[in-house]
Design brief:
Layout: E1 5-7, H1 9-17, E2 23-26, H2 30-35, E3 42-43, E4 62-65, H3 70-81, E5 87-90, H4 93-100
Parallel strand pairs: 1-5, 2-3, 2-4, 4-5
Length: 108
């Protein structure tokens, strides 16, 4: 895979519900995570990702998450360039997830 791909929130929710496993890498800042976060997500702020690549399971499918999908798209690209084989970006971020999948998730 030469570039990261996006996944829509409803598709990700469907695939999680079917039992597919993902690493949900949330690259938002701690203040944002205090407002809302997806269950079972791994939090590594965007600026820390380059030095913390060793904490990520290389063979896992990694879904990068942020507020609107821009920062996570940048991190997804970094992971692809670093040789991670299966990287997706959550299109629209947690904002779109709250609108389309889980309306109980606080928005900001």
């Amino acid at each position: 895979m030469s570039a990261s791909r996006s996944i829509a929130p409803k598709e990700l929710a469907r695939r999680i519900a079917s039992g597919e496993r993902f690493v949900l890498l949330d690259v938002r800042e701690p203040e944002e995570l205090a407002i809302c976060r997806l269950p079972d997500s791994l939090a590594i702020p965007m600026g820390e990702v380059p030095r913390r690549l060793g904490e990520l399971e290389r063979q896992a499918t990694i879904v990068c998450v942020c507020h609107h999908g821009v920062r996570s798209a940048n991190v997804a690209g970094l992971l692809v360039r670093a040789g991670f084989p299966a990287v997706l970006n959550l299109a629209g971020g947690v904002e779109r997830w709250a609108l389309e999948v889980d309306p109980t998730l606080p928005r900001y």
